[in-house]
Design goal:
Oligomer: single chain
Radius of gyration: 12 Å
Order of helices and strands: EEEHHHH
Helix content: 40-55%
Largest sheet: 3 strands, antiparallel
Number of domains: 1
Number of strands: 3
Length: 89
């Protein structure tokens, strides 16, 4: 997989992922609060790092947004448990 290039567009409340070797992905998370957007970006990067190249190529922005919002809503223990149970393939 390529180099991760996810960034935040604070004005739009948007996560922008331009990972090398993958199609660009853009989605809005529904908030423009800086701390929340940074948490969403961290969740996006955590989830993306666990995806196989095939899964990364097939995941839609809508599916990624749903996964990111679910991940951000969990507390730390639940996040750890989710990552242990979930196989993002």
């Amino acid at each position: 997989m390529g180099i991760f290039m996810a960034t935040i567009n604070y004005g739009l409340g948007q996560i922008v992922d331009r990972t090398v070797g993958c199609k660009p992905m853009y989605y809005c998370v529904g908030s423009k609060v800086r701390k929340y957007l940074q948490a969403c970006l961290e969740a996006h990067e955590t989830i993306t790092a666990r995806l196989t190249p095939k899964a990364r190529a097939n995941i839609s922005p809508k599916e990624m947004k749903a996964a990111v919002l679910a991940y951000v809503s969990l507390d730390n223990d639940d996040k750890t448990e989710l990552l242990k149970k979930t196989d993002f393939v």
